[in-house]
Amino acid sequence: MKKEIANWGNYPVMKSDEHSFTYLQDMLDYVPSADGWIARGNGRCYGDASLSPNTINTTKFDKILSFDAEKGVFECQSGIMLDRVLEVIVPKGWFLPVTPGTKFITVGGAVASDVHGKNHHVDGSFSHHIMEMDILLSDGALLTCTPDEHADLFEATCGGMGLTGLITRVKFDLKKIETSYIRQKQIKADNLEEMLRLFDEYSHFTYSVAWIDCLKKGEHFGRGILMFGEHATVAELNDRQKQDPLRLPAKKQISFPFNLPSWALNKLTVKAFNRVYYAKNMRKVIDNVVNYEPFFYPLDVVLHWNRGYGKKGFVQYQFVLPPDRKDGLISIMKRINERGMGSFLSVFKLFGKQDSMIGFPMEGYTLALDFPIRDGLFEFMNELDEMVLQYGGRIYMSKDARMQPGTLQAGYKRLPQFLSVIRKYDPQGRIRSVQSDRLLLTKPSTN
Fold it and tell me: How does pLDDT run across 256-280, given as a tens digit for each residue?
C-alpha cells in the first residue's frame, strides 16, 4: 500500500510502497523478487537518501541479539534505535563509541550514513567500531562481512546510503564509562578567529562542538559558543549524582505541535534567535557536570522540531574542508553572511584523519547549516558547492537533497571504486533511491 513519506527535512515528499518486517525470513522471501527498493530506518536522514518507490522499513526489526557487559560488545538487528541501545548499555557502564546529534536513528542508519559525532578527531566515525555485520543482497544472499572478510562490501556499506544491500545485523564495540554524566566546559568566542584558536587550544578534549552565529558582521563575525566534554568520573560528581552515577536521564519531552508559517522564518527572526542564544551564557567560561542527554542530544527534547521550518520543509547543508583551508571556511561563511542566509542551527566540528571509500568525514573542519526551502535557495547552494570544491572539500550525502552529480564526483575521489562494488553485489541494479538516481549512482527504472 502506498503511503506518503519524507525524511527529517520534509523535502522532498513522495509516495512509496512501504514494506515492514519482523522476521528475517520475510525479507529473504521478498528481496529477490523486489525491484527499485531502498532500506529505510526512522527517516532521520535529512534528504532523499532513503526514499524510493519501494521502501523496506526496518524499525520493527529491532531485537538485541547479545550484549557482553564485560567486554563491551553489542550485537543487534539493524532496526533498533540508539535510544534503546543507550537504555541497555549505560546502566552497565558503557556508552556508544560514536553518536550523532540525535538518538532517534537506527543502528542500520548509523552504518549507512557512517555517522560521526563530537569525538571524530579522537575516535573516528561509527564504522571504525563495527566488528561485523550481515548484509542481505538484492539476489537474496546473506553475507557476513568484516574489515577483513568481504572487505570491499564492508567498506562500501559504511557510508554507502544503503546501496549495497539491506543491513540486517551489526556487532560493534562500546566505550567504557564510570558515570552517565559529562564534565562540560562552555566558552564564548567573540569571533571566528578566536573560535578556531580555542578549538586548537582544547583539542585534547574527547568531545568538541560549537554553535556559530552566521549572520553577525564586523568584529564579531563568526562568534559562537564552544562546548567541550569528557565522560565524568565518580569523583567529579556531586553528592546527589554519586547516589546513582549511571542513572539514565529522565524522559522530558515536548512536541512542536504544528508547522510554522513560512513567513516566520526570515533574516530578522534568525538574528533575534542568535542574539538570545549567544546571550544565554552569562559568563565567558562555564564549567559544570551534566547528564549525557543535554550534551549529546539537545534537540531530542523537542519532538517534531523539524516542523519549525514550515510546511515546505528545509534542507541541511553540511560540508567539510581540509585543515589547511581556514581561508575557505571564512570565505564560505562570508558568502552566507552577505546573502543573509543564516541558519538557526549552525554546528561546527573538527574531524580527524579518515580515508573511506564513500564515507563523508576527512580531516578538517565541518559546518552544518539548516536552510528553509525558499525561492533561490538551490541556486545559492550551487554557489556554495562550487566554493566547497574550490577549497578541496565535499558535501555529506546523508544530509543532501539537491546536490548535482558533478559535485559528488569531484568531492569523492574513490567514487569509481564505490560504483564498481555496488555493481558487483547488485548487478541487476535493483537497489536505488531518489538520491542515487539523481546523482547517477544508479540507473532509474524503466518500468
Answer: 666 766 656 666 666 666 677 677 7
Is there a single domain that holds both residue 83 and residue 199? no
* Cβ contacts of 141 within 8 Å, gap of 6 or more: none
CATH number of the domain residue 282 falls in: 3.30.70.2520
Q: Is residue 120 domain-shared with residue 200, that is, in the same domain?
A: no
> Cα(first)–Cα(last) distance of the chain, in Å?
18
Q: pLDDT (tens digit, 9 = 90+) per residue, 47-73?
A: 999 999 999 999 999 999 999 999 999
pLDDT-derived band at 445 (thresholds 50, 70, 90) equals low
pLDDT of residue 183: 98
Among 14, 66, 31, CA closest to 433: 14
Q: Does residue 225 sit in the same domain as residue 291?
A: yes
Cell of 87: 537504555
Would you state the pLDDT for residue 137?
98
> In 3D, which of 444, 417, 447, 437 has the Cα closest to residue 356?
417
Lookup result for grid cell 564549567: 287
- Percent pLDDT > 70 in the chain is 94
Range of the domain at 123: 64-177
Question: Is 143 within a domain?
Answer: yes
Q: Would you say the C-alpha torsion 301, 302, 306, 308 has a positive or negative sign? A: negative
Q: Which residues pair with 315 in a beta bridge?
A: 371
Are 327 and 357 found together in one domain? yes
Please state the domain count of the chain.
2
Cβ atoms of 199 and 185 closer than 8 Å: no
8 Å CB contact between 307 and 260: yes
